[in-house]
Amino acid sequence: MSLIKQSSTIQQNKKIALNLCPVTYTLEKIGGYWKPFIIYHLVEGVKRYGELKRAIPAITEKVLIQHLKQMESDGLIIREAKAVVPPFVTYRLSVAGLKILPVIQAMAQWATDDMEQSTSDHLAAD
Amino acid sequence: MSLIKQSSTIQQNKKIALNLCPVTYTLEKIGGYWKPFIIYHLVEGVKRYGELKRAIPAITEKVLIQHLKQMESDGLIIREAKAVVPPFVTYRLSVAGLKILPVIQAMAQWATDDMEQSTSDHLAAD
DNA sequence: ACAAGTACTTACCCCAAAGTGTGTATCCAT
DNA sequence: ATGGATACACACTTTGGGGTAAGTACTTGT
Q: Domain of life, per the record (chains A, B) (predicted)?
């Protein structure tokens, strides 16, 4: 899955950051390009792979799978496959995935606030 | 400032994501590699450029400046320079920067919770 | 017999973020 | 006059995430 060079400075720094900073830890888990979208759609409930794909048309299959695998191994979502053919695979949020929803909600709230404020100008905080 | 190719698919997708998803908007602003560290140190109050540099030894000057410029133009922090020599430049959080602190706090909280949970095993959410 | 649907997998390319290294103007202390 | 401190700027390289495109195994529908 696209090998990573553990020796590279960037990986060393990532380790430093993960040790020192819990915020970086969280960013690692939800920071993928389309991960917020996936979470958003899984809030509605259990979804099949194909449903997610159709719900997010701009995402490519490779990246979708990639994100799903990462989020699964990160414990954010749960994959369940029925041993039938054609395959029947579903995804849903785990406990940790559910617990992160308020955080995401807070991020969204700040964003909408900030977008409104930006129409007027930023002023200094004394 | 490293020019960006507006035509690339990734930039197109970024625009799509920013329009559709406020979470992505927030991730854009705090998602930089060392931005959480910068914010963390500015919580203590006004800091000079050199103080920040010494507070985060692993960061290079280029990336530090880069992040500071971005965060300034994003309205998260405020730069103030005294017209003296040698230069005297300080950075501090703006209103928007202060408002995002609870969000960051929530992210940190989720992270520490999740790290604890990960020592035991993840179970499905019914 | 052939296409369509399912859930992936693999090889390859592109590019922007991060890292490396050097340069700059001015002042002060030694 | 030489070096250090200040706050950057600029050119260059690396790297890893994301995009493109094609293939796979197996079944059902026509």
A: Bacteria
